[in-house]
């Protein structure tokens, strides 16, 4: 549980969080230790998990096919618990560039990528990327050519998207671990491309 100094003022939602968690602990739904363990588990979720999934898809055609057909089942087949949300994986290719957003709030594939970046949660990004995706991508330094279709995918409360970015040229001899180090959180959101080493 987050500790706050006595002189800090709680906003409505912080007070509600503390009251509800205290009530659930008091009623025996879970213990304070259970809650701490879950918070610790959430803190261990990083983009490295998603990067490993991408690298496996780049090096294992069967896994890639399963990942694109059913992202949740494919991830669970390699020991990743996706929870109650459905994972949709969209592949960026020579002709299609994918980017993800959550227009309503900040739904994000946290199981694979951890905490979303602040800019992803901003109203500016959430509203603009659906209206002018090429302009937003350009601000991130990504400029798909005019003949590449840009597709924007909107996360929902029960469904999350993950971009399977294009594998850079000249990486044929690299190991899965080396490839995973090239994959960034932003490339799995789709605002950046994966750069060759």
Report low-confidence residues grouped into runs of 5 or more. 1-5
Total number of β-strand segments? Answer: 4
Q: Distance N terminus to C terminus?
A: 41 Å
Query: Which shape, going by the Cα principal axes?
Result: globular
Percentage of β-strand residues: 5-15%
Report the CATH topology name of the largest domain: Nitrile Hydratase, Chain A
Overall pLDDT confidence: 93
Indicate how many domains the architecture comprises: 2
The CATH C-level name of the largest domain is: Alpha Beta
| Helicity, as a percent range | 40-55%
| Gyration radius from CA atoms, angstroms | 19 Å
Written account of the structure:
This protein has helices spanning 12-26, 32-43, 47-59, 61-69, 71-77, 110-113, 118-121, 123-131, 133-139, 176-180, 185-189; strands spanning 86-91, 96-101, 149-154, 159-164. It is α/β, with parallel strands linked by helices. The chain has two domains: 12-43, no CATH class; 47-189, Nitrile hydratase alpha /Thiocyanate hydrolase gamma (Nitrile Hydratase, Chain A). Helix 3 (47-59) crosses helix 4, helix 4 packs across helix 5 (71-77) and helix 8 crosses helix 9 (133-139). The longest helix is centred in the N-terminal third of the chain and has 15 residues, at 12-26. It starts with 11 loop residues before the first helix and ends in an 8-residue tail after the last helix.
């Amino acid at each position: 549980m987050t500790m706050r100094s006595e002189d800090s003022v709680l906003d409505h939602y912080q007070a509600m969080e503390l009251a509800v968690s205290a009530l659930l602990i008091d009623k025996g739904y879970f213990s304070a230790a259970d809650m701490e363990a879950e918070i610790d588990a959430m803190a261990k979720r990083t983009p490295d998990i998603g990067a490993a999934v991408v690298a496996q898809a780049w090096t294992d055609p069967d896994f890639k096919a399963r990942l694109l057909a059913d992202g949740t089942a494919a991830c669970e087949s390699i020991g990743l618990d996706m929870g109650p949300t459905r994972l949709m994986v969209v592949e960026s290719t020579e002709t299609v560039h994918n980017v993800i957003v959550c227009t309503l709030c900040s739904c994000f594939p946290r199981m694979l990528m951890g905490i979303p970046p602040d800019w992803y949660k901003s109203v500016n990004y959430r509203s603009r990327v659906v209206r002018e995706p090429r302009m937003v991508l350009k601000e991130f330094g990504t400029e798909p050519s005019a003949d590449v279709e840009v597709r924007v995918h909107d996360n929902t409360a029960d469904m999350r998207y993950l971009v399977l970015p294009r594998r850079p040229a000249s990486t044929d001899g690299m190991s899965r671990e080396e490839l995973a180090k090239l994959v960034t959180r932003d490339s799995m959101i789709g605002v950046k491309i994966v750069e060759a080493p």
